[in-house]
Amino acid sequence: MLRFEKEAGIDLTYIPFSGTGPLKGALQGGHVAGIFNYTMLGTEMADSVKVLAVASEERVKALPDAPTFKEQGYDIVGGAYRGVAVPKGTPDEVVETLEEAFAEANRQIAEKQEPLGFVMEDITGDEVDEVIGMLRDAYGPILEDAE
Amino acid sequence: MDMLLEALASLLTFESVITVLVGVSAGLFIGAMPGLTATMALAVLLPFTFSMEALQGLMALGGVYMGSIYGGAFTAILINTPGTPSSIATTFDGYPMARQGRAYEAIAAATIASVAGGIVGVIFLLVLAPPLARWAVAFGPSEMFWVAMLGLTLVASLSSDSLLKGLLGGCIGILLSTIGVSPVGGESRFIFGYPPLQGGIELIVALIGLFVIPELLTMAAEGRGALPGQTELRKKEVSILSIVRHIFGKPINLIRSCLIGQIIAIIPGAGGNVTSLVAYNEARRFSRDPRSFGKGNVDGVVASESSNNVMVAGSMVPLLTLGIPGAPPDAIILGVLLMHGLRPGLDLFTESGVLTNGFILSMGMAALLLLPVGLLGGRLIHRVVIRTPYYFLVPSIAMVTILGTFALRNSLLDVGIMLILGTAGYFLRLIGIQPAPIVLGLILGGIAEEGYVQTLMAAVVDPIPWLRLLHNPLSMVLAGMVVLGAATTLVPLWLARKGLLDRVEEDDGRSP
């Protein structure tokens, strides 16, 4: 949200909620003007809300009518990333086996979750460093401002 | 209507009845264990439903939900320990009744009240779900703040001997609720440099500690069981028929408790623990003989148990129509619905109406089945508690509570907190500070804080930010109820102190 404020040059009032659950009620009851949340909430609440923008590279399959931030001129791509780490010096074969296993698991999970509106990406190898670098560039200045 | 009949038909098979029966029994058993809540019962038994058909799985879980909320009443009545947080208010009168040898009367009343409440909730859900759903979203942060405040006025009525001690207990509870990561903002507070405390004090942990441990210490100190022996019991046993007559003869208490249960159940975030406390408080306020509450008035048990079982189906209103869980256990039900490809919304009542109606009706059936299961099981558990000598009873309850506390989050720290709070609670009780106001403060402190902070954050641009707390009619009405609630307890007290109102006269005027 701070990234959006910066990109768009506007000032928003931030009200933290304790999770995704209460957000639905807050939006439907008109207690907040808008929310930032996962894409899957957009499909879940398709009947009652309008998704203004999604923060992915391309449009989300389950939300074909929702434009991305990029399309609208704001350079915001992000999401919730989960990572797997191994101790330094782990043999390459072990790393490869694990990578394959996680890739397969991710593929199976994605099959079920994508229709629900999740954006699933499988990031491996050097791409991991790229994503971390991208996130550092995006959030670093904000954190520095906060200090 | 066709869908309703079709759903009813699919429900009246031998298999379905057995499914619900097993669900109710399992839920009852788990609910009766201190520390194991309805949410946990659902979570633990959820995997067993994976292999079932959608309807059968939902039926089983509906039964578990209903059974576990009711099961909490057993321990509340017999050993002064709410099995689930929704039974806190049941201890207020249930346990005094048991001490007077009226345990079975209390259990029977709780059973009948639960059945009635469960069925009323199902009817509300079937008939009124869509219009009621609009209510649910009307409760925003400022309204939640006032609901919590309304609950806190209860402190006054829970502390019958000394208002000051009650308020002191409430303050201790609110202070306890601030330990850990703050609900809005996420700062760590009062952890005294000890990071594991960031998790805060879990309600169940405090509940077990404050209610069970002092009771166990008292039992051990006095060398007695939880209840007087059998001879005394027989003498005072009342027939079930007369209890039924008592409850339905003057149905106002039941109706009021059911309505309160339903209204609070649809507010997201306030669960069964809040419903039963508010219903109890109102039953007391409107009673002709408020002094007898807390000393073994059967109406207190009825109010608490009927309202928390209304909540079971009642909290499904926002869940099924909007996908907003009305109480914590509903979050699990939501997961099950999504797993079976059922998306909450009004479609649920039209397109997959048979399934939805079947689920709702099965909760009604579960409520009905509480009657035989509860009355039989109640007699059994009651006998066990009475016949077991205290030197077996105390250690076994202590063991179960420690296990239950640990099972909650697999945390030994929780066990430590539970024991510390319990020991503190014992001494607090000796100086007249009861556990109920403390727990109340703990439950409502967090809700009030979150509502207050969110409201004020939304109002940063307003000239007078706190006016946002009264920004719409609903919040004004709620605020008015808080003032009224506080006034009805405080004004008579104040008048009495000034000598303007003679206490004896007041008593005479009120007694029937």
Structural class of chain A: mainly alpha
What is the SS-derived class of chain B?
mainly alpha
What is the CA-CA span between the terminal residues of chain B?
47 Å
What is the element string of chain B, with H for helices and E for strands? HHHHHHHHHEEHHHHHHHHHHHHHHH
Number of helices of chain B: 24
Walk me through this protein's architecture.
- The complex is a heterodimer of chains A (147) and B (512).
- Chain A has 147 residues and is mainly α.
- Chain A is built from five helices and no strands.
- The longest helix of chain A has 22 residues, at 92-113.
- Chain A is globular.
- The mean pLDDT of chain A is 84.
- Chain B has 512 residues and is mainly α.
- Chain B is built from 24 helices and two strands.
- Chain B has helices spanning 2-11, 14-32, 38-45, 54-79, 88-99, 103-138, 141-152, 154-158, 163-177, 203-222, 230-236, 240-249, 252-265, 272-286, 298-314, 316-322, 328-339, 347-350, 353-387, 390-409, 412-430, 435-458, 473-498, 503-510; strands at 180-181, 188-189.
- In chain B, strand 1 and strand 2 form a beta hairpin.
- In chain B, helix 2 packs across helix 3, helix 6 packs across helix 15 (298-314) and helix 13 (252-265) runs parallel beside helix 15.
- The longest helix of chain B is centred in the first third of the chain and has 36 residues, at 103-138.
- Chain B starts with a helix and ends with a helix.
- The A-B interface holds A 13-18, 21-22, 24-26, 28-32, 44-45, 47, 116 and B 136-141, 183-186, 268-269, 318, 322-325, 331, 338, 343, 345, 450, 454, 457-458, 460-461.
